[in-house]
Amino acid sequence: TVLGILVIFFLGTIYSLFMDMNNIASMNQKYNIMYSDFEDKRKVPDDKLTELINDNKLKLKNKVCIEYLYPLVEDDFSSEYQPILSKSIYNNLTNSNLAINSGEIVRLNMNGDKDKPLPEVYPFDTFTLKFGNEIFSFKFKAPEERNIVINYDVQPSKWLLIINDDDFEKIKSEVNINFKRVFIAIDFYEWKETSQLVHDIKKELDYEDEYSKYPVNDERNKDILGISSRIDYYNTIKKELSMTLFIVAFLGGVFLLCSGSITYFKIITNITEKKEKYIKLRKIGITKNEFKKMIKSELKVIFFIPLVFSSVISTILIYILYISSLYPERFSRNMLLVIIYYSFFQVIYYLLAKMKYIKSII
Questions:
Q1: What is the CA radius of gyration of the chain?
Q2: Is the pLDDT of residue 212 over 60?
Q3: Residue 329: which pLDDT band, with cuts at 50, 70 and 90?
Q4: pTM for this one?
């Protein structure tokens, strides 16, 4: 039972992580590729982007241009550059119905803990938005929202701000063109084939991997154009998990072999004792078929009762440890598949042990 728990625990964990890599990447990277560019004079013009896509023989699925402003945002605790969307753009992207009055601002946490409760009252009331010499103040509308609107890490800050449409247009008409930006979000039918395209776009943007190398409130940050892609994120988590996955898979395989082998060899070592028992039972009238039934019943208890206990206990254990970080439906399906595979393995051991047992005794 203990070995069965370890087998299902290790293999269930590794299988769930392996099968959910695509989903984890998709959850954090809403779009296949997303990068920031200037609104007035783009480093990657539309014709150049089309050329790059065609050169890489990719089939475009969807392209979205998301207009935003990029001021230095100050509150009572911090000062950093954060993107601002208009209410209508946000609602269109998320199919929501967020209401914001003039003079109000909503802040979204792009990578916060979704299980952590939102504050009912935020510790400050006002945001100050600095567009060079132009300064605007907004009243904070609590609580903050949590929603994946743009790709994770497409910009240095984890925050995204939403303001009323009228306020957005007013600021846009008054501030310098350098604070007006656009997110280019692109989806393809085969996102795992986009590595070279991401490299090409980075080259056009003069992008550095450590693009957020300056302090968050440094003036140079406003001139940095970020890029984030699902394929890069996928490769990163795959690389980070590769050694862990190998070790866990190795341990799972070892315990899988041990769990069946120990039971198998334990049974085989009792053959001499069982032979003597069989001779005595034959003398009092037990038939060969009746003795076979006794052996089968005994082996079923030895092989399958531990299987039931280990399946239940390991499922509860993994549920407690991982249910908050994995998708419950897919997690349950993956665990069920691991238990089925393990059960199949145990059935093979059972059949081998039964054949050897009966052949050696009778």
A1: 31
A2: no
A3: low
A4: 0.70
Cα torsion 98, 104, 110, 116 to 10°: value is -90
Asked if residue 173 has pLDDT above 80, the reply is yes
State the average pLDDT over residues 5-26: 78
Contact 162, 105 (CB under 8 A): yes
What order of strands is seen across the sheet that includes strand 79-81?
Answer: 79-81, 72-74, 126-131, 134-140, 104-109, 159-163, 84-86, 60-69, 180-188, 33-38, 227-229
Q: Which residues contact 306 (CB under 8 A, 6 or more apart)?
A: 1, 4, 263
Place of tokens 């059935």: 347
CA distance 86 to 241: 38
If one compares 65 and 302, the residue with the highest pLDDT of the two is: 65
What average pLDDT does this structure show over 214-232? 70
Q: Pairing state of beta strands 134-140 and 104-109?
A: parallel
Which residue did the predictor score with more confidence, 224 or 201? 201
- Separation of alpha carbons 2 and 313, rounded Å: 10
